[in-house]
Input
Amino acid sequence: MNHLIDVQGLHSFYGESHVLRGIDFHVSPVETIGLMGRNGMGKSTLLKSVMGLVKPRRGVVNIKGKNMTGHSPYQISNLGIAYVPEGRGIFGNLSVKENLIMAARSGTQGQMDWTYERVMETFPRLAERLNHGGQQLSGGEQQMLTIGRALMTNPDVLILDEATEGLAPLIAKEIWKICSLVRESGMSSIIVDKNWQHVTQITNRNLVLVKGEVVLEATSEQLQQNPQLITPYLGV
Ligand SMILES: Nc1ncnc2c1ncn2[C@@H]1O[C@H](COP(=O)(O)OP(=O)(O)O)[C@@H](O)[C@H]1O
Ligand SMILES: [Mg+2]
Output
């Protein structure tokens, strides 16, 4: 079994509030997964439970065959899992260049595919803003910087939680293009996004959460051919 991430029977709570109710979920090498569902269904909590930011009460989080349940975000990230949370979280008082350089490291297999130079080529907008402080960037540029910073760690899995949320359509389009490049580079990823049409253009397999349970798992092809499978679970 060579899953990069393998979650089994996961239950997570906030206090008495039972948010994840027995989630099974895995990510294999070279696989791009879409995670969808309305607001408040538990998508971010699932990602935080994988990253060690929320301690699951029951169930197991295996990373590359190691039981990492309850381990720290630092230990999880060292196994090659990069997480770009909802909302941005850049170092506002560092320049674009400093934000990127600080994150640089080789991957778990020694891979150095994503260098500073490659990130600059991939995000020409950032290249124009190298000496700007993080605070001076637009929302879209901040999002590109957080993704660029995650790529600089040369992860095996890139997790993007609502990366296009609140961005102008043109900027969102650039983010989607970057998701394609990441996929083509052979890196696995988990993409959380509201726009299932965009998501399924990038992903292989998709999961939909309703109230902390997986209610649908389907390939992107299945969803594109049968939108009625997914539309009842999305929108308002
Ligand atoms: N830090 C928290 N404390 C308490 N409840 C939370 C917290 N974060 C999220 N929740 C609740 O957990 C549920 C799932 O939230 P979340 O995982 O953020 O959903 P999604 O990412 O799908 O929008 C929601 O009911 C939300 O209000
Ligand atoms: Mg969320």
